[in-house]
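Board notes, transcribed. Complex of a protein with adenosine monophosphate.
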Amino acid sequence: MAEKYHLVHISTGEVIRNQIKQGTELGKKAAGQMEGGGLVSDELVLEIIADCLVRNKDARGTIFDGFPRTVAQAEAFDKMLAEMNESVSVTLSLEPKDQTLIDRLLNRGKIEGRADDMSEEIIRNRIKVYKEQTAPVKDFYRKQNKVVEIDGEKGIENTFQQISSVLDRMISQ
Ligand code: AMP
C-alpha cells in the first residue's frame, strides 16, 4: 500500500522489535511488556510516534500500522496531529475470524520466527487484549465517521484490492 500510494509506513511493533534487538533503553523497557502478548505502555508508544511524526513531517501521508491500540493513544494522537494541523483520514479495520488469525500467525511464526507468533497461548492472549483494549479504538473513530471495515477472511490480493478501493475513493473526493 505504501509503495502504491507513496506513503510512509510506520509499524509500532516493528519499531519496538528493532529497539529490542538494538538493546536501547526503550527496547529494554518494552521487552517485558511485549513478551506475553500484552501491550507496551502508552507512554513508550507515544514517544515512538512523536519521534516518527517529527522525522516524517514532509510525508505525503502515513500508514500507521498497529497504532493506536488504546483509546488513550488515539486521544493523544489526535492532539499531536491537531498541533501540526493534520488529522486522521481513515481507520481501516481488518477483520478476520479468530481462528483465521491463529492459523495465519502460527504460520508466520514458522516462517519469520517471531516469538509472539510461535505460541498459540500468546496469540490467544493478543486476541483477548485486542478485544478488551483495541476494539474500543474503533468506536472512538466511528464517532468521527472514519472507520472502514475490511473483510479479513480473503487472501492478500483481495485485501489489497479492498483497501485500494477505499483509498482511491478518498483520493478522488
Ligand atoms: P505488531 O507487530 O503490531 O503485531 O505488535 C507486536 C507487539 O508490539 C504487540 O503485541 C504489543 O506488545 C507491541 N505493540 C505494537 N504496537 C503497539 C501499540 N500501538 N501499543 C502498545 N503496544 C504495541
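The chain has eight helices and four strands. Residues 11-13, 16, 34, 37-40, 45, 66-69, 73, 116, 126 surround adenosine monophosphate (CB under 6 Å).
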